[in-house]
Specification:
binds heme C, 30% helix, Multihaem_cyt_sf, single chain, Tetrahaem cytochrome domain-containing protein
Amino acid sequence: MDCTTCHTEEAATMEDGSMGACVHVQEAQTECSTCHVDSATLSEVHQDATATDVMPKKLKESSVEPATCQAAGCHDVSADDMLALTADVTELTDSQGTQVNPHEVMGLTAGHADILCSDCHSMHKAKANAADTCVSCHHAGVYECNTCH
Ligand code: HEC
Ligand code: HEC
Ligand code: HEC
Ligand code: HEC
Ligand code: HEC
């Protein structure tokens, strides 16, 4: 199946150098199916899809799991090497000066179990701001819970 016939928007991001998808094409010859491996969900959502369908505004039943990003030959590096990649990143500093390495976040505590690589690394959209991904839970601008209530 040629994904690009219907998904013209995502296909365009494979050729736009400012997009994560394009970086993956250039550096790893990535195809749609390299990242979109959840074939069970995909065949379900595509059951009645035809080339003349109007795309729904929001699609989000399928996601790309961290395990897919960390598959052999891709980002299959140790936790220490992941931390080293972002050792100098200071953008995750809260209003009290607590600084967090972005690559530490996914392994921090149970409250972070559902965070995906793609929450910070968009592939088909403009680059996400890592700090914006914290606000939905850390609503008070502080990287802690259970201190105020
Ligand atoms: C490098 C990995 C990667 C490649 C290559 C890739 N995708 Fe994606 N795709 C993702 C991730 C991660 C998401 C989750 C949302 C995001 O980051 O934009 C996603 C989301 C989507 C979505 C849902 C969009 C939405 O609004 O949520 C569609 C549809 C899609 N991709 C289609 C494609 C098609 C078609 C191709 C090939 C032309 C492709 N993708 C190539 C990683 C990839
Ligand atoms: C015949 C047109 C068509 C083709 C070809 C096609 N898609 Fe889709 N795709 C759709 C439509 C329509 C939807 C929205 C389905 C819905 O949510 O009702 C969709 C949804 C998706 C989603 C979002 C699923 C979700 O709801 O989370 C992904 C990811 C995706 N397609 C990837 C792909 C990939 C990868 C390929 C190639 C292997 C592909 N599509 C080929 C029409 C197509
Ligand atoms: C889905 C909700 C959620 C998101 C998103 C989230 N956090 Fe948290 N965070 C929590 C919860 C809940 C706790 C309290 C500890 C627990 O229950 O896991 C916490 C605690 C923390 C702590 C204290 C950890 C400890 O050892 O007590 C730090 C630091 C932190 N978060 C940083 C971040 C940063 C930085 C981001 C954004 C990149 C972020 N969190 C995004 C829910 C979240
Ligand atoms: C909380 C946000 C966050 C999460 C989650 C996250 N990253 Fe990152 N990552 C960053 C930031 C910030 C950088 C610094 C470079 C940048 O801004 O893109 C970075 C850098 C990287 C780099 C180096 C890019 C380069 O240009 O050298 C790679 C590779 C990477 N991340 C892969 C991953 C993978 C794989 C995962 C999931 C296992 C992941 N990241 C999860 C925020 C995050
Ligand atoms: C700096 C103080 C502070 C921190 C830290 C903080 N909160 Fe809050 N939170 C508040 C205040 C103030 C309110 C609104 C007061 C109220 O009605 O309880 C609130 C309200 C809430 C509510 C709504 C409660 C309700 O009954 O409507 C939730 C849910 C919540 N916080 C979750 C969290 C989580 C999860 C974290 C950590 C990720 C967190 N908060 C960290 C101060 C804080």
